[in-house]
Every structure is written in structure tokens, then in C-alpha cells.
User: Which sequence fits this backbone?
């Protein structure tokens, strides 16, 4: 057979493969649990190169809590690549959350390799979707039901958003299987940023949810990262079509300036998953109230997706805001469980087994403090003030710009820090970076890389 006769056949085969590697957009309806399981399984089978389906545990009634991971390396963590997550349906009757995450999953896998914005995000981030944390509650919820409570709790009638260890008071509520599964999940992966989707109002709620001393009167409960949380919350609310107006639900008497609210200033919650994520797991978590009606009719689902899709995407990009790095021994071995703090901010983070750390920070000047057992503590001044331009070099440090995000964005720093043993001497790096002494303590900064981030006012347009 001549080559000219083979050529059309090759085109046909490639074209058929292209069509096979795609899923049909899910309908804009409320899907049942079996459909959800089948859909996640289908996505995982269709896109094995960018998705990974796994279970983190089971509900009271034995339903798997399925998570779909999406990214360029879906089955394993890549050094310094941040892990982010969305959790839906923690209250079983708040179903818009499920459908938004189903649509976002399709949007990402369908756009990968086709849309530069989506491809960049998935090549630099691994995103985990727990679409339904409370499948048992969802199973008994009824449609339509805008303000009811049927299906809110799990099968044992526990509110899962009151079921986590609390920083301010002792939470005596029995830990439920769904909550325990999430806690173990947080221990297995160092998540950096998270959003938990709810319904019944439209606002972004940020920590803290509780106040010290068991107080019962609501008041603003400011976290050490209050500035960052406000930025993240506004990133979501201002990308939403109406949330930022502050009063999007006609029946609701509350007014939320900018569409955001501090949790305890709104109402007090003990044992919230949001505060647990932030305080105990080192993950900045927001509560995203995404619909005025908890369980609306099917014909409202599409409008909720259109209202929230840009917000859901833009919030994910904010994980690349701030500083990330690696803490190493002098022989360049990672130090596990080193404490990495920002001076003046409590809830310091611990390094992973690969020595990694991340802190979401706004542009500014900070002091990074690193301590580890058996090593000298060090501190380092970070200047994250917004800068533009190409690679620069001065007497202190070589700075290399990496165009990960748009060229008009601001800069962040990637640090690789070597700690000296507490009984040893500082060893200067001969071939890269700088060696310096800070307050009489040895510090060897091997490399500083400035990467581009996505600021909230310099977002590229999303594909329609």
C-alpha cells in the first residue's frame, strides 16, 4: 500500500482519539450520588494523565468519600508544587456546592492543553475535589428546599461543621467518620489553600469562627493572617457577579460589605472545619456561601455556575501568592518538621518530609524565622514588595525571574535555606547564592528565585 493511501487513515485514527479524550459537559441539574460516582470514575478513566480518583474514607452509612485530584502530576506530589482543595456538600442539603464542583472539574479537564490559563494552573498546582463530604445527608435531602434542615447533618444527626477540634474551647462532640477522614487527609498532604462550599446565603466567611474563653457574644475574631484572608475573600467575592454588593439575597437582613465577613463577627461556631484547617493543619481555608437557596430547582443550577465559575478559578490561583521554599541540612538533605514562622504571625508552619514550606503573603517586608531541633535558628528578611522587570543581579543575591504567570504580575520569592548544625560552623556556598550571618547565627541562603504570581487585578481572561 502506498504512503499516500495510508495518510488519510492516520488522520482518521488521530481524530478519533481526540474525540475519545473528552467528556460531555454534565447537565445543569442536581445529580444523584450514583451518577456522581460514575462521573468521577469516567473522568478518571478518560483523563488518566491529569486525574487521579481516590477515597479518603467512608461515611456512617459506608459510602466512600471520593476525591478527584487534577494536575499535570495527579498521582504524586511534586517538589514545591502546592496542593489545594475544594470541599462540597459538608451539609448534605446544600447541593449547589456539589454541582459547582462537578462543573469546575469538567471545565478544567476539558480545557487542559486547549486553554493557556487552565493549562498553566494545572501544570503548577494539584487540585483536589471532595465533591460530597456528606453523601448520607444528601441522600435524605429534598428538592426544592431553600431554608430547611433535612439532610444537613450526617446519618447520626451530627453537624459536620461543628465536629472538629477547636482552638479556643474543648469540643466535646463525638468525632464522626466523615470528619475523621478529613483530618487524616489533612495529615497525609500539606494543603496550602482550601475552599469549603456551603449554601443558604452568598458571602465569603474567613477565620476565626470562634472567640477565646467560650464567649457567646459575636465579635470580630482577628487571625494573624487577617490581611491575607481579606484579600482571598475579596478575590472570590469581586469575581462573583453579585456577591460583592453585600446584600445579594433579598430575604436576608444581613449586609456584608464587599461580600465578605469574619466568621465570629457573623455568628460563633465551635468546631468548624475552616478554623481546624487553618490552625491545626496549616491550610488557609475559606467558607464559601454560594447560593441563597440551599437546594434549588434544577433550572437554577446553570445561573449559579455562571455566577461562581470565575470566583472558583481565581481563588485557586492565589496559592501562588507569597513565599515558598525548602529547608536543608548542610549536605543538602531536607529537614522534616522544621518550624517556619513569619515574625508577628502565630500559627507557624512545619516543613514537609521534603523540607518544603509555603506561606501565602501579600506584598510587603517580612522576617522569616526558621528553627529545627539540633540546628541553629535563623531569621531572614523578605522583601515581597511588588517589582517588575527581568533578571537582575547585585552584590547580595542573584535573582532569576521565571515567567510562570503573566508578565505584568508582581513577584514572590522561592527560598532554599540551609541550616547549620547548632554545634558547627557556617559553611558558605561557593557556587551559588550567598552566605551571611544574622544576629550572630549562621545562615546559608543557596538560592532565591522570584516567580510571577497572579494578582487579583491582573488576571488573564478565562475562556468562554
Assistant:
Amino acid at each position: 500500500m502506498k504512503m499516500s493511501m495510508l495518510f488519510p487513515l492516520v488522520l482518521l485514527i488521530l481524530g478519533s482519539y481526540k474525540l475519545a479524550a473528552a467528556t460531555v459537559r454534565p447537565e445543569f441539574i442536581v445529580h444523584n450520588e450514583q451518577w456522581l460516582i460514575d462521573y468521577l470514575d469516567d473522568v478518571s478513566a478518560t483523563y488518566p494523565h491529569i486525574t487521579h480518583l481516590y477515597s479518603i474514607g467512608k461515611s456512617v452509612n459506608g459510602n466512600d468519600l471520593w476525591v478527584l485530584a487534577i494536575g499535570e502530576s495527579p498521582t504524586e506530589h511534586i517538589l514545591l508544587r502546592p496542593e489545594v482543595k475544594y470541599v462540597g456538600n459538608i451539609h448534605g442539603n446544600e447541593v449547589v456546592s456539589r454541582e459547582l464542583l462537578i462543573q469546575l472539574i469538567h471545565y478544567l479537564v476539558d480545557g487542559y492543553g486547549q486553554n493557556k490559563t487552565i493549562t498553566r494552573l494545572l501544570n503548577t498546582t494539584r487540585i483536589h475535589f471532595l465533591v460530597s463530604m456528606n453523601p448520607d445527608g444528601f441522600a435524605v435531602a429534598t428538592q426544592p428546599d431553600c431554608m430547611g434542615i433535612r439532610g444537613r447533618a450526617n446519618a447520626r444527626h451530627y453537624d459536620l461543621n461543628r465536629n472538629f477540634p477547636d482552638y479556643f474551647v474543648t469540643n466535646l462532640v463525638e468525632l464522626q467518620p466523615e470528619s475523621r477522614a478529613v483530618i487524616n487527609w489533612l495529615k497525609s498532604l500539606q494543603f496550602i489553600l482550601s475552599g469549603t462550599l456551603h449554601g443558604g446565603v452568598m458571602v465569603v466567611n474567613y477565620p476565626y469562627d470562634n472567640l477565646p474563653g467560650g464567649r457567646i457574644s459575636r465579635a470580630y475574631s482577628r487571625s494573624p493572617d487577617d490581611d491575607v484572608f481579606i484579600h482571598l475573600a475579596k478575590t472570590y467575592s469581586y469575581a462573583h457577579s453579585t456577591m460583592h454588593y453585600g446584600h445579594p439575597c433579598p430575604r436576608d437582613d444581613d449586609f456584608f460589605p464587599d461580600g465578605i465577613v469574619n466568621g465570629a463577627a457573623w455568628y460563633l461556631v465551635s468546631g468548624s472545619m475552616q478554623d481546624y484547617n487553618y490552625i491545626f493543619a496549616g491550610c488557609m481555608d475559606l467558607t464559601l456561601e454560594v447560593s441563597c437557596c440551599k437546594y434549588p430547582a434544577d433550572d437554577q443550577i446553570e445561573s449559579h455556575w455562571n455566577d461562581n465559575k470565575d470566583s472558583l478559578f481565581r481563588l485557586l490561583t492565589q496559592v501562588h501568592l507569597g513565599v515558598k521554599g525548602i529547608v536543608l541540612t548542610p549536605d543538602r538533605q531536607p529537614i522534616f518538621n522544621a518550624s517556619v514562622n513569619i515574625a508577628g504571625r502565630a500559627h507557624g508552619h512545619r516543613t514537609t518530609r521534603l523540607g518544603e514550606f509555603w506561606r501565602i503573603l501579600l506584598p510587603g517586608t517580612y522576617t522569616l524565622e526558621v528553627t529545627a531541633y539540633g540546628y541553629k535558628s535563623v531569621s531572614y528578611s523578605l522583601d515581597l514588595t511588588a517589582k517588575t522587570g527581568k533578571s537582575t543581579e547585585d552584590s547580595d543575591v542573584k535573582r532569576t525571574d521565571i515567567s510562570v504567570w503573566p508578565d505584568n504580575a508582581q513577584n514572590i520569592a522561592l527560598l532554599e535555606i540551609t541550616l547549620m548544625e547548632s554545634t558547627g560552623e557556617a559553611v558558605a556556598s561557593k557556587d551559588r547564592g550567598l552566605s551571611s550571618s544574622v544576629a550572630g547565627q549562621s545562615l546559608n541562603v543557596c538560592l532565591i528565585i522570584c516567580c510571577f504570581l497572579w494578582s487579583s487585578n491582573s488576571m488573564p481572561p478565562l475562556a468562554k
In short: Residues 302 and 324 are 37 Å apart (CA to CA). Residues 1-20, 387-411, 423-464 have pLDDT under 50 and may be disordered. The longest helix spans residues 3-20. DSSP finds ten helices and 19 strands in the chain.
